[in-house]
Design goal:
The protein has 9 helices and 5 strands, in the order βαβαβαβαβααααα. By secondary structure, it is of the alpha/beta class. It has a 5-stranded parallel beta sheet with strand order 2-1-3-4-5, with helices on both faces.
């Protein structure tokens, strides 16, 4: 594993980590030197298995992934990571790439597919794009986690009410379904909007769609 110190990020902002998964040690060394000069933290792995054994998604960043490696290939690793809720963006780097492989990689969500030898600026641009993509994904996951916490704070009756009003039922229809008064439904509805921090019914509907 190769690691470099952080020189540009504060403790409040986790340092992006660039993971190089490639069985060629000379390539890992060369790219590590380049990324060190660009002030990135770098970690190197000689195989997909070694990468999977690490805590690879704890910090923001991206993966520079070789297409062909002994054992688990780059495409196989990409497929394995796709099953995880938290995963890093992937940039493929290969000296053996072909059109079918690149199409498969991009359809599966790869940020870029670059041939070796790679132009330094092309690589740095792709890494910058991948880090931005990772930041956006982490932001969305954090928002969803917050919505889940707020939803969990609802009472059982409020869960029943929110499921009905977000399906378009009127207060009087909800009251009839639950055997309560319309005033009671309005009270539950107000509490739901407050707890979920929703400014409108449309926003509440979007939250419920994300949860589902």
């Amino acid at each position: 594993m190769i690691s470099t110190p952080d020189t540009r990020h504060s403790s409040a902002s986790p340092t992006p980590v660039i993971h190089i998964v490639d069985d060629d040690p000379s390539f890992r060394t060369a790219v590590t030197r380049l990324l060190r000069a660009a002030k990135y933290e770098v970690r190197g792995y000689a195989s997909a298995s070694e990468f999977l054994d690490s805590d690879q998604c704890a910090a923001p960043g991206c993966i520079l992934l070789d297409l062909r490696m002994p054992g688990v290939s780059g495409l196989d690793l990409q497929q394995s990571l796709a099953r995880l809720e938290e995963r890093l963006p992937i940039i493929f780097l290969t000296g053996h790439g072909d059109i079918p492989a690149s199409v498969r990689a991009m359809k599966a969500g790869a940020v870029e597919f670059l041939p070796k030898p790679v132009r330094e600026q092309d690589l740095l641009d792709a890494i910058s794009l991948a880090i931005d993509k990772d930041a956006g994904a982490r932001g969305k996951r954090a928002e969803l986690a917050a919505v889940r916490v707020r939803y969990a704070s609802l009472t059982l009756r409020e869960h029943e009410v929110v499921s009905k009003i977000t399906r378009g039922l009127l207060n009087k229809q909800v009251a009839a379904d639950l055997g309560v008064t319309e005033i009671t439904v309005k009270l539950h509805r107000r509490h739901i909007m407050e707890k979920m921090q929703a400014s409108s019914l449309a926003e509440l509907v979007r939250m419920m769609e994300r949860l589902s």
